[in-house]
TrEMBL record:
Species of the source: Oryza barthii
InterPro entries on file: SKP1, SKP1-like, SKP1-like_dim_sf, SKP1/BTB/POZ_sf, Skp1_comp_dimer, Skp1_comp_POZ
Pathway per the UniProt entry: Protein modification; protein ubiquitination
Protein's UniProt keywords contain Cytoplasm: no
A Pfam family recorded for this sequence: Skp1
A GO BP annotation: jasmonic acid mediated signaling pathway
Name of protein: SKP1-like protein
UniProt cross-references to Gene3D superfamilies, sorted A to Z: Potassium Channel Kv1.1, Chain A
Start and end residues of each SKP1 component POZ domain: 10-69
Length: 169
């Protein structure tokens, strides 16, 4: 089912775990090492099933890939420094809005980026997750990640005493 877009770009079909189909240019898909290898090996003709990625999450991933492919300059048409700065600012703004999602979606995006081996997307989503938890208390992190405290009160007091620097705000 590899198709060609009106502009002559080769397209591939991505199929989410719930059967929804998404078309993406090979250039945009190349942001994923997994998809790049499949394209190189001619394994995309009948579509690429992504059993670990739901349609809602895949729609976001496709949006990210398309935006980054559209804004990233092609080597032959490298723009002047002012245009490059404008594109970088546009991407920075897009990325900030892109990761402004609920925690569940953020973690699903991290899993999808990891599954697809999409390093830039993985870096973006993991950095946002780190930014979210960096100012949380231990108790808040436990609650967010559903971590059971298996220390006795005495053990916890000892750990806090030994690592007091880590608990200073």
């Amino acid at each position: 089912m590899a198709a060609t877009a009106d502009n002559g770009e080769k397209m591939i079909l991505l199929i989410s775990s719930d059967g929804e189909r998404f078309e993406l240019s090979e250039a945009a898909a190349s942001q994923s090492k997994t998809l790049s290898h499949m394209i190189e090996d001619d394994c995309t003709d009948n579509g690429v099933p992504l059993p670990n990625v739901t349609a809602v999450v895949l729609a976001k991933v496709v949006e990210y890939f398309k935006k980054h492919a559209a804004v990233t300059p092609k080597p032959a048409t490298e723009a002047v420094a002012a245009d490059k700065a404008k594109r970088e600012e546009e991407l920075k703004s897009f990325d900030a809005e892109f990761v402004d999602v609920d925690r569940t979606m953020l973690f699903e995006l991290i899993l999808a980026a990891n599954f697809l081996n999409a390093q830039d997307l993985l870096d973006l989503t993991c950095q946002h997750a780190a930014d979210l938890i960096k100012d949380m208390s231990v108790e808040e992190v436990r609650e967010v990640f559903n971590i059971t405290n298996d220390f006795t009160p005495e053990e916890e007091a000892e750990v806090r005493k030994e690592n007091a620097w880590a608990f200073d705000n």
